[in-house]
Every structure is written in structure tokens, then in C-alpha cells.
Amino acid sequence: MSTESRRAVRRRKGLSTWRLVRYADDFVALVFGSQEDTAALREEIATVLAPMGLRLSEAKTQVVHMAEGFDFLGFHVQWRRKRGTNRWHVCAFIANRPIRWVKARIRALTNRLSQQSMGSVLIRLNQIMRGWANYLKHAVAKHTFDILEHFVWWRVIRMLRIRHRWRWKDSRRRFATPTGRWRRPAMDGIELFNIATVPVTRCRYRASNIPNPWTPANHA
Which Pfam families is this protein grouped with (predicted)? Predict the structure, then answer.
């Protein structure tokens, strides 16, 4: 199964094929075949890992159909039909766990009773959102970024209202322009980062001949 032609020959014979995608100690096996083929491959993987003193984690290892999708490295990979067509594509979305994590960090930093200076809060918020968005910007993430932008903006505004005892009209006077547009909260020249402005880009294609520790050439 090292080349596309060899995998095509196996498929024509009714045999299953699979590809391994790995990152550090995490990996996913993508199987073109039946559920029985996938279960057999899982047992084979466990057999290969056993001599190295490794075993598959029961909590993290599961067999799923691409229509259900699976979480891998913060992404939710799922088979979806393109709207208005009968064409199906494998899409990567942001998984629920990273979204819960970043919202928890935002809530902790924008606690209404927090005694941190507004400048330090904005710096930390910007650092978290920039790093989080740059890692996940290759997913189908535009809608999620828009939701998080609305979430963090309101968290900051509400924190300021409680801290300074502003009424709603006081907030509008400070953050709304005469045309009705809202300004970004800022302090000491530090402006709240707009996560919705992060461009969503597709992953750069890399050929399948990427060197790995098991390539024979690396042991020559």
C-alpha cells in the first residue's frame, strides 16, 4: 500500500486499504474497507505496539465511520455533503473541546470581580486568541471565530460595566461611534484583538513521500 496504484489494485480485488496519519504519539488510521477490516487492523496495531511496551488507550481509541467523524489534534474530521450537490468531502472543523477550553480561559480573565489591570487583561486575551486562532485557522472555522468574537467582546464590556459602575448609556457613549458602530475596547494603546479577522486558509499540500523514522533511507 505504499503507492496509489498498489492501493487501487487492492481495492479492485475487494481488499481493504489504510493510511496512517501521525503526530508525535498520536495517530489515526484511515481505512477504506468494512468495519470488520477496521477491527482487524486495530488488533494488528495493538500487536505491533506491544513489544515496545506501548498499548492503545481505551479512552482515546475508537472505531467510527467518517459520517460520524472523529476528533484529532483539536480538529473534528468528518465526511460532509456539499450543500446543494451530491458531492461528499472530508472536512475539518474545530472540535468542541478546544472551544470549551478557550471560552473557559476568557471567562477566567474577564471575571467581574477581577482585580487585574485592564491592560494586562487585554494583553493576555490577545495572546490566547491569536495563538488559538492561528493553530485552528485551517479548519472550517469562520463561523466559530465570529461567535467567539461576539463572546469575548461582551465579556470585556460587561466586566468594565461592573468595574466602573457604568449604565448602558455610559457604555454606548464610550464605545459607540456617532454612526452606531462599536469601537474595540482598549487601554494604554492595547486594543482587544478581533479574532474574526483571522483569515481561514487551507492547509498547504505536502506530498506523501515525507521522511519519517521508519523510512529505510534514514537508517542507511
Answer: GIIM, RVT_1
Lowest-confidence pick of 25-34, 88-97, 114-123, 202-211? 202-211
Query: Per the structure block, which three cell numbers stand in for 214?
Result: 521508519
Number of domains within the chain = 2
Q: How many CA atoms lie within 13 A of 189 on its CB side?
A: 0
Task: Tell me the percentage of the chain whose pLDDT exceeds 90.
Answer: 34
- Inter-residue contact 66 to 18 (CB < 8 Å): no
209 belongs to a structural domain: no
Q: Residue 211 burial by CB count (10 A; 0-12/13-18/19+): exposed, middle or buried?
A: exposed
Query: What would the grid cell of residue 49 be?
Result: 505496539
Rounded Cα distance, 95 and 76, in Å: 5
Do 161 and 77 share a structural domain?
A: no
d(CA 38, CA 31): 6
CB-neighbour burial class of residue 136 (10 A; exposed 0-12, middle 13-18, buried 19+): buried
pTM of the model: 0.79
